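Our working data are protein records whose layout never changes between entries. An example says more than a description, so a record of this kind follows.
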Amino acid sequence: MELSGQVAIVTGAGRGIGRATALELAGMGADIVVAELDQAGAERTAAEVKGLGRRVSAVRTDVTSRADLKAMADRARAEFGRIDILINNAAIRPHKPFTELTVEDWEYVRGVVLDGAMYCTRAVIDSMVKNHYGRILFFTGEGAFGGGSGRAHVSAAKMGLVGLARGLASEFAARNIRVNVVSPGSIDTTRANPEWYQGHVPSAAGIPLGRQGRVDEIAATCLFLVSDDGGFITGQTIHVNGGTAFH
């Protein structure tokens, strides 16, 4: 099993892409830390990971809290001895017209999407440097590249992750730490913010492959990027979107 002996933290792993990624990595031998704000969701995913025969820890984690993230990382090291992989999946996607956007709206989205990923990475990077090994992923999305009404604050935070990944990839390449970004297209999954679809049922319209993506396809991309198969890839953004082009 390619990831045998490795330990992966997956934030927002209670459902959707986070859950699928946690299970994909566990299926390839990794032990998993499920870092999730919803404790019930964390426990459900943890039970599935355990069913795959892997060690698992479910930790209620608010990614906007540096104290929570430090405690989660400390617990991971205490229970498993190391941290090899970090999947920064936790996110929110609220819609709001820019002219109605408040400072609080802006700071809340930035706090979860960009600051949370930065704080989580900061909490684990020292142990990765010490072990001369690390794999870190961030998630952006089509909206950040293609634009979209009512989501300027989300797009700005998501694009910030691209810059963060590029900077970290350059800074830590010599320490055998690779950092990349996954950008999912339209994925067939339930989202926490139904306003994302603005009242329209998601469809495959405009996707050259003629269908929406699946969470397991995003999870497989994550596995590739953190495994030795993706060993020469760092500082990149991988679009998994069925061929959708941005103009």
